Every structure is written in C-alpha cells, then in structure tokens.
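Technical annex B. To support the medicinal chemistry partners, we prepared a structural model of the target in complex with adenosine-5'-diphosphate, based solely on the information shown next.
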Amino acid sequence: MDIQPANKSIVEIVRATKIYPPDVVALEDITLSIPYGEMLFLTGMSGAGKTTLLKLICGIEHPDKGLVEVAGKDLNRIKGKEIPRLRLQIGMAYQDFKLLADRTVAQNISMAMEVAYHNIRTIKKRVIELLKKLRLEHKHDALAGRLSRGEQQRVAIARAVANSPTLILADEPTGNLDSKTTKLVMELFEECNKSGTTIIIATHDAEIYRGSSYRVLELHSGRFLLHEERTITTMNSMP
Ligand SMILES: Nc1ncnc2c1ncn2[C@@H]1O[C@H](COP(=O)(O)OP(=O)(O)O)[C@@H](O)[C@H]1O
Ligand SMILES: [Mg+2]
C-alpha cells in the first residue's frame, strides 16, 4: 500500500466524542492509537459504543469533538479523490452485513474488488479461494438474500477482506456463527493479520479472544473501561 510510514499508527483517535441527535452520547472522550499490523478486540455490552467507534474509523460517522486520523489523514479534513482512495484501504464487515440481496454471493464479493481495478481472472480466483476458506463454495451462485444469517455473515466477511485492505474492521463477525465456523473466520483474520493487515474486531463474544495475547479494549457507556481504571490507579498512587 502507498501510505505506510514505519513510525506512524494507522489509527489515531484523540479525545473523540460522538453524540447522536438529540443527546445520545455514544462515545465520550475516546483516545486510541493503533499501530500498523495490530489485531485488536473492542468489547463491551450492547450499546457500549463499539459500532460507533468502527464507524468513526471508516468515516461513516464523524466525531462531534476530537480527532480521528486514519493512515495519516484527518477524516474531518480529507476531501476529493483522497476519500475513495482511503476507503479502498479499509474493509468493513458490517454488523447487519449490507449485502445486495438480489445479487449472487460471487457478485457481492466481486463488486468490492472491481472498484479496486483487479482483472476478472484475479477476482474470480480470489472469490473462489475465500468461499472455500469459509466453507461456502457451494453458495457461489446463490442469491445473497436467500442465505441463512450465518452464511450472509461469512459473505460480508469475505467481501471485507477480498481486496486485501490495509485495515479490516469487523463488527460482531461471529454473532451468527457456530463454534466451528467461528474458528474458520478467526483463522482467516489471523492469516490476514500475519500478512501485515491491521484488524479491529468488535465483539461481545469473549470466547473469540480468550487466551490470546491480542489487545482487548472494553467500552462501557462510550468510554474505555481499562483507561478509566488506569487513571484511577495513577491518581490513588500519587503522594
Ligand atoms: N444512528 C443512531 N441514532 C441514535 N442513537 C444511536 C445511533 N446509533 C447508535 N446509537 C446509540 O448509541 C449508543 C452506542 O451504540 P453502538 O455504537 O451501536 O453500540 P454497540 O455497537 O456497542 O452495541 C447506543 O446507546 C445506541 O442506542
Ligand atoms: Mg454494535
């Protein structure tokens, strides 16, 4: 990828607050730095702000206060051609999938790749490879709207990783999957991460990161729980 300075984080969030009208404080004073190549988990109960944080990072929502920078670009100032160029580097697997119901599985995945100007043969090969990894090869020509939720979820994941983006954002990617299929999805993410991709996974399923050494950040009512605890400890230990 073109912008990957060694000394920089891919995501830099400084004191970001997001308020949905009229007065829902979804995120409050969030500061977060994610180096290139990290895989990390965002956790917290339903309503804690996980989806909103992913939306700030991919630029679907903007903070009311604070800074959100991705690959060195301030998302509040970025304009013109820079926006699609940055979006190509981000693969988002949405919590509600956002598939085109009247298109086939293969078409849903291919479309994400066509905007990145891959040739047809590369696209076809990649689609088959991803469907095999996610045990969905038999659904290649099925309409997305006819799939079960667990199958749709895997198509959304395949579409998010298809372009080998620099940054993958996965929102509750295993929410509709059994433990075997969850394992396949996590193996795919780990494989992407090993090849250098930064991955942020929002989940309320502690099973998928239990025992791993990845960073886990817990949101609670729009704030990072661990950050607060650390602040309190520091204050208590002051003379
Ligand atoms: N578009 C919206 N309009 C108003 N409130 C919203 C909207 N999206 C999310 N919220 C609220 O913001 C808070 C955080 O939501 P969300 O980021 O979806 O949390 P999570 O993904 O952790 O469940 C919740 O109180 C939710 O109801
Ligand atoms: Mg959510």
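Notes passed to the chemistry partners:
Confidence is low (pLDDT under 50) at residues 227-239.
The first helix runs from residue 50 to 58.
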